[in-house]
Design brief:
The chain is mainly alpha-helical. 78% of the residues lie in helices and 0% in strands. Helix 2 (22-32) runs parallel beside helix 4 (58-75) and helix 3 (37-54) packs antiparallel against helix 4 (58-75).
Length: 120
């Protein structure tokens, strides 16, 4: 799906919510946020390496939960637009209170979607 199509889709989901598996999340990422595929692959590799190193699957669960939340944001173009704008404005803010306001917006969106995919 192109960025142009995503922009015209309103805030309905572009795709169904993917299962919380590496393959399903990667496939969803390829559709809704292909620019994040390199970061997705790096996060997967890092999670697997940490799981082996620590003898725990916890890093894998963390990576899956984080990427499920990011994909959930990207599935809804208007929500993604607000989220990315808030992140950008936080990075360029010159006053701490301004940065905090934008980070609160982005963080609230992330928390809401993380909870939604966790309880789905």
């Amino acid at each position: 799906m192109s960025a142009r199509h995503a922009a015209t889709a309103g805030d309905g989901p572009l795709i169904p919510r993917p299962e919380r598996t590496p393959a399903a999340l990667r496939a969803a990422c390829a559709v809704v946020a292909p620019q994040l595929l390199v970061a997705y692959d790096q996060a997967e590799d890092q999670a697997l390496a940490e799981a082996v190193e620590h003898g725990s699957i916890r890093p894998v669960h963390s990576y899956l939960n984080h990427w499920a939340a990011l994909i959930e944001i990207e599935r809804h173009p208007e929500r993604a637009k607000v989220y990315h704008r808030a992140e950008c404005l936080a990075h360029i803010a010159t006053v701490p209170d301004e940065a905090r306001t934008h980070l609160t917006t982005a963080g609230g969106i992330y928390r809401d979607v993380a909870e939604a995919v966790r309880t789905a």
